Amino acid sequence: HNHYETDMNNQSNQSHLNNEPTFASSSFATPNYEEELDSLGLESDATAEIDEVAGVAFIEASPSPTTASPVDLSAIYEFLGSKTPDAWIKAAINDLPTIIQDHANCEKKAAGTAMNLIFRYEFSHNLQCKLAQLIREEMLHYEQVIKLMNERGQSWQYLSAGRYAKGMLKQKRTHEPAAMIDVLIIGAFIEARSCERFAALAEAIDDDRLARYYRYLLKSESRHFEDYLALAQELAGEDISGRVAVFRQVESALICSPDPDLRFHSGLPV
């Protein structure tokens, strides 16, 4: 899903759209996880591994429902302040290698950001557990994406970070615990937008295998959004809706305003 990019965006934030976003669908069926990974050829040893660093054996197994289960995305659509512009979807379809490459970058950055948070905020047991799970999942997704790239004959290429996450981080408060609360809220928006874009691409691309993989990712990405938001609320100990509203406006402006660089979380193509 999403994520913490490092390039500065000097463009000022534009005003939030007043109209409520409309989304085509709020529910997508997710496949049987083990069968789907096997059919996609993306099964990984990471789904059953020994955590030798911690000295503890654990099994990280994907859930395996007997039938496809729907993922309700209505909470994500309600959380976001705008829908992905059709122009972005069209540009993404016309340049899937860039989108896939940046998706790999995002998975790696998400894991790295979560690891940094684990070291910086060791006081919260719940936060530590949630972030540890997120790191494992993000790195598994990273492995899956680079396998897809290899199978598609797509070599790794350098892509500079886009403006998206940095544009939101500019609004982060500098004192604790407010800074941490803001970072977690930003994480929620990144994961929610990732989920929304996976769903949009899955519906639009003429590539069945890639579409199936994006649908497969919806369940974990939607859970990551909820986890980040719940952690922010827990840490704050008070209503965070005001801060969420601030970042909703900033995030929507970044998504809906002209953006010269096509990235997974970029704005309106120019």
Which labels suit this protein?
two-stranded antiparallel ribbon, 57% helix, disordered N terminus, 270 residues
List the SSEs and their pairings.
Elements: E1 27-30, H1 33-40, E2 50-51, E3 56-57, E4 69-72, H2 74-79, H3 86-94, H4 96-120, H5 125-151, H6 164-169, H7 178-204, H8 208-236, H9 241-256, E5 258-259, E6 268-269
Parallel strand pairs: 5-6
Antiparallel strand pairs: 1-4, 2-3
Helix pairs in contact: 1-8, 4-5, 5-8, 7-8, 7-9
Strand portion, in percent?
Answer: 5-15%
User: Biggest sheet: strands side by side, in what order?
Assistant: 1-4
Low-confidence stretches: 1-34, 44-68
The SS-based structural class is mainly alpha
Tell me the overall shape.
Answer: globular
User: What is Rg?
Assistant: 18 Å
Can you describe this structure?
With 270 residues, the protein is mainly alpha-helical. The chain is 57% helix and 6% strand. Residues 1-34 and 44-68 have low confidence and may be disordered.
Condensed summary:
This protein has helices spanning 33-40, 74-79, 86-94, 96-120, 125-151, 164-169, 178-204, 208-236, 241-256; strands at residues 27-30, 50-51, 56-57, 69-72, 258-259, 268-269. The chain is mostly helical.
